[in-house]
Specification:
The complex is a heterodimer of chains A (about 210) and B (about 725). With about 210 residues, chain A is mainly α. Chain A contains nine helices and no strands. The termini of chain A are far apart. Chain B is mostly beta strands. In chain B, about 40% of the residues are buried. Classes of the chains: A mainly alpha (about 210), B mainly beta (about 725). Chain B: One of its GO terms (molecular function) is siderophore uptake transmembrane transporter activity.
Chain lengths: ~210, ~725
């Protein structure tokens, strides 16, 4: 009996140990997300950066550093800082890409970073990245036609272009509607996998109507 | 019992780890605290952010030697490897990141188009949306300061230099015959389609030791590394048609492009001053193959082109006109490899081959020119750190030129030359700080033809005077062998030489760029000869000299007025030469004292249209009037031209394009031709040299077919 108890204890310790080493990363990620909510983007960004540095096999912390820099560039006015932020986003996304190949979430983020360049200087980067952005969405869609962020971002880009050229936007609105269904049923792979996009999709759909 | 021991043991392991405090202060190099820097132990989650006083302090369970890292946007990441217990009360200064955007840039003499340059004055698209340029990259560069307006020629004349003093390079490799041959009253165009290039650097002086055999200027064109998507481009124009296709694979891509131009329908509709027997027609094919290898990129570019025309041109000495016929075949191949070796070394190797054959007939003379040239280059770069880079390499140019001359009255003669040059260069880039940079190099060339060794030092310095402005200085010594027209008759000569002194000021304020540049150029060893035209009977020597000095101003603004982008260039040039057959020192006929260009592009959202305008003004050019005393004793009236274009986006994939050059139909005069002999009153009769046509109209429809359908050929125009 005691032997069994002992065994249970040992198993428990081994398990705790293995869970422990995982929870270090998980704890850190949780903390990073709480920093995001409480202290804001920079604190979260720096924490994700540290996690990214300590966990060379995890793409998510790199992904979030890229996302935060991409988001920050929206608020920024100084062109030099915008460029530096988008360059930093690209550097971290490149690391994420090297860890996780053909990842639709990363492809979407890449398209977003390029879109920010286009917003920054349309006359120049529109020409440079316009076609690449479409190609990224196509590729992401081939890989994950049921991923709501893929479906929404692709439709959002198509909607913007169609609106610009005065073409029919209805098919894109339909796609956005479909993405909302997908958002509702979306199960992230892990607790830390990307889940964003629903609010923005709802907002764009409102414009559609 | 055992269990509790185990628990105690476990508990102890968890809590017995002693905690150490890591602390310090982070400042910039002027001791100002840096707030918001990320401070952490490398490979752990332990770290913090500096406060408003630049201070940081955090606890860590780590022990032993660890690397402390501090990173902050626009600063170099700081690393310190020490025992954790010693990582407290640190005083750390972060160094400016030299790669940051606000770092000083060596800009004297250089105009760049592209995004890899921090000093871009042009964007790649500008090359093809400038109204007067008609899709020719050379035409767009002629709206920049430092160029002169030689409307009938079309090539780049830079700062008092002749057109052949500018050399063109594709991916760092020389192009020997960059221009399409044309009649004497029609400007030429660059052979290569502008949409193959995504980076253009135009240097009007003081360039790097990597480039030689150019007295005045270099134009560096870089082909696109990776096309963005698979597509087919179709273009139907009033003067011909173009067809292109791009195919992409996992690590490689191929773009092919064909064009056919025939001016016959156009000249039938709008007759010009030439009496055409067979109007200009030309066909070209281009292919670019790119392959990504493990640590590098291989690019292969080849182009084939043929063109021909046959006409009778007006001439003061031949009332029936002069019969002129030309056939040209041109083949160009360019291959290069660019790769990264370990330990901050990178390597580049490239080779180009040119075959050019021109058959002319002028009255009874039949002339056949054949040129076989190649250029091979190898260079290496070592990046010691962000502040110190070394570049060195070697190259070999070989030109084999042969001319056959045939005339009913004499036997066919054949003559030519081999002009082989080997060269080595080395250059260092040093950043003393974010505000002060130096580039200095040395170039050694050996001409096999002249058995002559030349040494050219180059140096440029840039200093940042404020957050938005900088000044640059450059000095350089440049050698170039005389051109084919001289070398085919005489090879016992030396290289021509020039020295450039440049002072540049640049102000770059968010969408507004102002540049001012003053320069002085001294030419020596220019070729002189003692006959009217260079030929076998002439005596040649290297005793010619010249100077050019001037001021170039450039202003570009795309922010002040919404949807309007415009630039203004002004050049003042003072240049005199004593070369060729000049009896005295005089201002040559390709020099305009004043040159002004205004280019605007206005985007009309509701019309999905870009309307472009370009205006150019150039003061008169010299010519010799034999009825008066002296040489190059008169000046033509000034040159004026206003061009308009309209690009209409029918949809994302279809563009309609119109353009008119010289809308106002101004009658420009490029010079005068005088009769060889005076008439009975002792007067030399004259004829104004006018362009073949005062105006030119162009209409084109461009359609891109791609999987997704968002690309268009706006950058094709």
């Amino acid at each position: 009996m005691t032997q069994i108890k002992q065994l249970i204890v040992i198993v428990a310790i081994v398990l705790t140990g293995s869970i422990q080493s995982q929870t270090d990363y998980e704890k850190a990620m949780e903390k990073a997300f709480s920093l995001w909510e409480v202290e804001g983007l920079t604190a979260a960004e720096q924490f994700f950066e540290r996690i990214a540095n300590a966990e060379p096999n995890e793409w998510l912390p790199n992904y979030y550093v890229a996302q935060i820099n991409s988001l920050k560039s929206w608020e920024e006015k100084d062109a030099n800082i915008i460029k530096a932020q988008l360059d930093k986003a690209q550097t971290f996304l490149d690391v994420a890409k090297s860890i996780s190949k053909d990842n639709p979430e990363i492809l979407v983020m890449q398209a977003h970073i390029y879109t920010n360049w286009v917003v920054f200087d349309g006359a120049f980067y529109g020409m440079k990245y316009g076609a690449t952005i479409s190609e990224l969405y196509e590729k992401a869609y081939r890989l994950a036609p049921e991923n709501p962020r893929v479906v929404f971002s692709k439709a959002d880009w198509g909607y913007g272009s169609a609106q610009y050229f005065g073409q029919d936007t209805a098919p894109y609105c339909k796609e956005i509607e479909k993405s909302l269904e997908l958002f509702a049923n979306f199960k992230p792979e892990t607790n830390f996998s990307p889940t964003w996009g629903k609010e923005r999709a709802e907002q764009v759909l409102k414009e559609c109507k | 019992m055992k269990l509790s021991i185990l628990f105690i043991f476990l508990f102890a392991t968890l809590s017995s780890v002693s905690q150490t405090i890591v602390s310090g202060i982070v400042t910039d190099n002027k001791d100002n605290p840096i707030e918001g820097a990320n401070v952490y132990l490398d490979g752990t989650y332990d770290g913090t952010t500096t406060n408003e006083n630049g201070e940081f302090s955090f606890k860590t369970d780590e022990a032993g030697e660890k690397i402390l890292k501090i990173s902050f946007l626009a600063y170099e990441t700081f690393s310190l490897s020490k025992d954790v217990s010693a990582l407290n009360n640190l005083k750390i200064k972060l160094r400016d990141d030299i790669n940051a955007l606000d770092t000083v840039v060596i800009s004297a003499g250089t105009f760049s188009a592209g995004d890899n340059s921090k000093i871009s004055v042009l964007k790649p698209l500008d090359v093809v949306t400038t109204a007067s340029a008609l899709g020719d990259f050379v035409g767009a560069l002629q709206t920049l300061p430092g160029t002169t307006t030689v409307a009938e020629d079309g090539r780049l004349f830079v700062r008092g230099g002749e057109a052949d003093e500018t050399q063109i390079f594709i991916d760092g490799i020389r192009v020997f015959t960059p221009y399409v041959p044309t009649t004497s009253n029609t400007p030429t165009r660059g052979r290569y389609s502008p949409f193959l290039f995504d980076g253009i650097t135009f240097s009007t002086g003081g360039y790097s030791a990597e480039y030689g055999q150019a007295l005045s200027s270099v134009l560096l064109l870089n082909t696109i590394e990776e096309p963005d998507q698979e597509k087919t481009d179709i273009g139907i124009m009033s003067v011909g048609a173009v067809l292109g296709h791009t195919e992409k694979w996992e690590t490689s891509s191929l773009s092919v492009n064909g064009a056919y131009i025939n001016l016959a329908p156009y000249v039938a509709l709008f007759p010009d001053r030439n009496d055409w027997i067979e109007p200009f027609q030309g066909g070209s094919g281009e292919a670019v193959f790119r392959k990504k290898l493990n640590n590098g990129l291989l690019k292969m570019y080849s182009a084939f082109e043929f063109s021909s025309f046959d006409l009778i041109q007006e001439d003061i000495n031949f009332p029936e006109g002069i019969h002129n016929k030309l056939n040209n075949k041109n083949l160009y191949f360019n291959g290069s490899y660019k790769g990264v070796l370990s330990n901050n070394w990178s390597v580049f190797g490239g080779l180009s081959y040119t075959y050019n054959k021109i058959d002319f007939e002028v009255i009874d003379d039949k002339i056949e020119d054949k040129e076989n040239s190649y250029h091979a280059k190898f260079k290496m770069k070592h990046h010691f750190n962000n502040r110190f880079k070394l570049n060195f390499g070697a190259e070999y140019f070989s030109t084999n030129f042969n001319e056959n001359y045939n005339n009913p009255f004499i036997n066919e003669i054949s003559y030519g030359f081999k002009n082989n040059i080997s060269a080595a260069f080395t250059e260092v880039d040093v950043f003393f700080s974010k505000n002060l940079a130096l580039k200095t190099g040395l170039r050694l060339e050996y001409s096999e033809l002249f058995k002559e060794l030349t040494l050219s030092p180059r140096i440029s310095l840039a200093y940042k005077t404020s957050a938005k402005s900088q000044i640059s200085l450059a000095y350089g010594n440049f050698y170039q062998n005389p051109n084919n027209n001289i070398l085919k008759f005489e090879q016992d000569l030396n290289a021509e030489n020039t020295r450039h002194y440049i002072l540049n000021y640049q102000l770059n304020n968010e969408g507004k760029i102002f540049r001012a540049e003053a320069y002085y150029k001294q030419y020596d060893n220019l070729i002189k000869y003692d006959t009217e035209y260079a030929d076998f009977t002439s005596n040649y020597n290297n005793s010619g000299t010249a100077y050019a000095k001037g001021i170039d101003l450039f202003w570009r603004d795309n922010k002040s007025i919404k949807n309007l982008d415009y630039w203004v260039s002004y050049s003042f040039l003072d240049s005199e030469r004593d070369y060729k057959n000049y009896p005295i020192t005089a201002t040559p006929n390709f020099v305009n004292t004043h040159n002004l260009s205004v280019v605007t592009k206005y985007w009309i959202e509701n019309w999905k249209s870009q309307i472009g305008m370009s205006y150019s003004f150039a003061s008169g050019r010299t010519y010799t009037n034999p009825n008066l005393e002296g040489f190059l004793n008169q000046k033509t009236k000034s040159y004026n031209s206003l061009s308009l274009n309209w690009a209409y986006l029918i949809s994302q994939q279809k563009i309609l394009y119109f353009s008119v050059n010289n809308v106002l139909g101004i009658k420009n005069i490029n010079g005068y031709q005088y009769a060889d002999a005076p008439d009975i009153n002792g007067n030399y009769a004259s004829r104004a040299l006018r362009p073949a046509a005062d105006q030119f109209f162009f209409v084109g429809f461009f359609w891109t077919i791609s999987e997704k359908g968002t690309d268009n050929q706006l950058d094709n125009l």
